[in-house]
TrEMBL record:
KW Transferase (keyword) present: yes
Record protein name field: Magnesium protoporphyrin IX methyltransferase
EC number: 2.1.1.11
Keywords: Methyltransferase, Transferase
CDD domains: AdoMet_MTases
Methyltransferase recorded as keyword: yes
Pfam families hit by this protein: Mg-por_mtran_C
Length: 229
């Protein structure tokens, strides 16, 4: 078994068990501890930045969007609410189940977003825009190129990625470490050099458009919009 396969199985198990409980709370609106609250605020800023970018283009209702690694639907649900056609998927059936429930609460019994339990490497189809937020933290650098290459092949016009940049302090990793209770349930967290990610995007025929950085005390996420040449 390669490291990549191994990591993926661990990540999947984690987000179907303890990780699901913890991240559902962080991404929700109930009581959480201070560190989790800080991460919740930072993550929401990342989501809001991407929504602002897409809304400011003024064509959201015409867009097909793939939200790869959608978690509990933090991005997919508001995008669908704003009129985009959204395909949302995640490797964790528990995360997708929660996203479906949330979508039902917010949007009622409708067929947008379309949710599925899928490893992002198995995603097919073509979308105007592919978005993948805070998933690269689960990919070692050597696997990131393949993963981004696959997402790029699905994106007709644009790919939006966020990742924990390597140049920033290791606090985030330590803090993330605290959320993973024991060695048997631990997933590794990988930071990436921005230059590496940009090179991969350029090699796939994209040019960097808008960029942003979310930094709170315990949450760091670099957001890149890559537009097909
Ligand atoms: N993108 C969501 C957001 O920003 O709200 C969720 C981010 S959460 C930190 C990472 C998510 O990526 C988890 O829901 C996890 O199950 C999912 N994930 C990790 N590896 C994946 C893979 N190979 N394919 C699909 N989803 C994956």
């Amino acid at each position: 078994m390669t490291n990549a396969v191994n990591d993926k199985a661990v990540v999947k198990d984690y987000f179907n068990a303890t990780g699901f409980d913890r991240w559902r709370r962080i991404y929700g609106d109930g009581e959480v501890n201070k560190v989790q609250k800080d991460i919740r605020i930072g993550h929401q800023q990342t989501i809001d930045t991407v929504i602002d970018w897409l809304k400011s283009d003024g064509n959201l209702a015409e867009l097909s969007i793939c939200d790869a690694g959608c978690g509990v639907g933090s991005l997919s649900i508001p995008l669908a609410q704003a009129g985009a056609k959204v395909w949302a998927s995640d490797i964790s059936e528990k995360m997708v189940g929660e996203a479906r429930e949330k979508a039902k609460e917010v949007l009622g019994e409708i067929y947008n977003p379309t949710f599925s339990v899928q490893d992002l490497e198995s995603l097919g189809g073509k979308y105007h825009t592919v978005v993948c937020l805070d998933v690269l933290i689960h990919y070692p650098t050597e696997d990131a190129a393949k993963m981004i290459g696959h997402l790029a092949s699905l994106a007709e016009n644009r790919l939006i990625l966020s990742f924990a940049p390597k140049t920033l302090c290791l606090t985030i990793l330590k803090k993330i470490g605290e959320f993973f209770p024991g060695p048997s349930k631990t997933t590794r967290a990988y930071q990436h050099k921005e230059a590496d990610i940009i090179k991969i995007l350029e090699n796939n025929g994209f040019t960097i458009g808008r960029t942003s950085m979310t930094s709170t005390r315990f949450y760091f996420s670099r957001i890149l919009e890559a537009v097909r040449n």
